[in-house]
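Severity: low
Component: inverse-folding endpoint
Summary: output formatting inconsistent between runs
Steps to reproduce: submit the following structure tokens with default settings.
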């Protein structure tokens, strides 16, 4: 059982117009950079993208927004992308915003075969408009439907030819749950290792969920917003101690 494919371009060949795609990662951490770039080259249009956020201008999902390949965006946070803001305000793209935990649970439910669930999050806000509401233990809860997609683009740290995956730190966010909630799951990995090199107890996504896998390249791993802690002003004593 060998699930390896040549590269990202071969992986996206089957992604046609109108496809829905789950894209893993959090901010710019753990996003499927190679698959996004290949999808832009392929030019598939009228896409529905499901992601925690919309990337930044000129990178990640932002590349697909620039080429006007996206018709609908289902996300939690979109505040770092000025082009996305413009497209949303001019109604050039449909936007479905979700509370972050609700988005994660909708995807988890989709992978677990749960059609819908009730949550108190979002009650009384725009997120609850048009949705069924029931009361549990004296609190109103909103009925939210599960999320699945045609494809899931996953980024992992290590993987083997059977599709077993290990993520690294923050890059695990959304990737693992999205790997359960799509008809076709394509994984790009930084390191494609031989069978037996992944510790069984350390595998985050078993290969049964993964349809195709390839080793990516040229990862930029950008920082979404670089911040540093301001240095406190040096006193005379502090400055002198530097020369001791």
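Observed output (run 2 of 3):
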């Amino acid at each position: 059982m060998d699930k390896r494919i040549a590269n990202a371009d071969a992986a996206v060949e089957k992604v046609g117009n109108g496809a829905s795609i789950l894209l893993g990662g959090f901010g710019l951490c753990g996003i499927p950079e190679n698959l996004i770039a290949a999808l832009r080259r392929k030019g598939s249009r009228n896409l529905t993208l499901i992601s925690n956020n919309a990337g930044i201008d000129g990178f990640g999902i932002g590349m697909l927004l620039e080429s006007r390949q996206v018709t609908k965006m289902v996300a939690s946070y979109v505040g770092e992308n000025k082009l996305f803001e413009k497209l949303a305000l001019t109604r050039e793209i449909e936007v479905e915003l979700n509370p972050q935990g609700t988005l994660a649970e909708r995807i988890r439910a989709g992978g677990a075969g749960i059609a819908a669930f009730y949550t108190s999050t979002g009650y009384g806000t725009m997120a609850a408009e048009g949705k069924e509401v029931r009361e549990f233990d004296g609190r109103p809860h909103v009925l939210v439907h599960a999320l699945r997609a045609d494809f899931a683009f996953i980024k992992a740290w290590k993987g083997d030819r059977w599709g077993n995956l290990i993520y690294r730190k923050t890059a695990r966010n959304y990737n693992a749950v999205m790997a359960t909630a799509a008809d076709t799951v394509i994984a790009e990995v930084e390191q494609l290792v031989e069978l037996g090199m992944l510790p069984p107890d350390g595998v985050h996504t078993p290969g049964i969920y993964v349809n195709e896998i390839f080793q990516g390249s040229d990862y930029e791993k950008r920082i979404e917003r670089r911040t540093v802690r301001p240095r406190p002003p040096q006193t005379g004593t502090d400055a002198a101690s530097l020369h001791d």
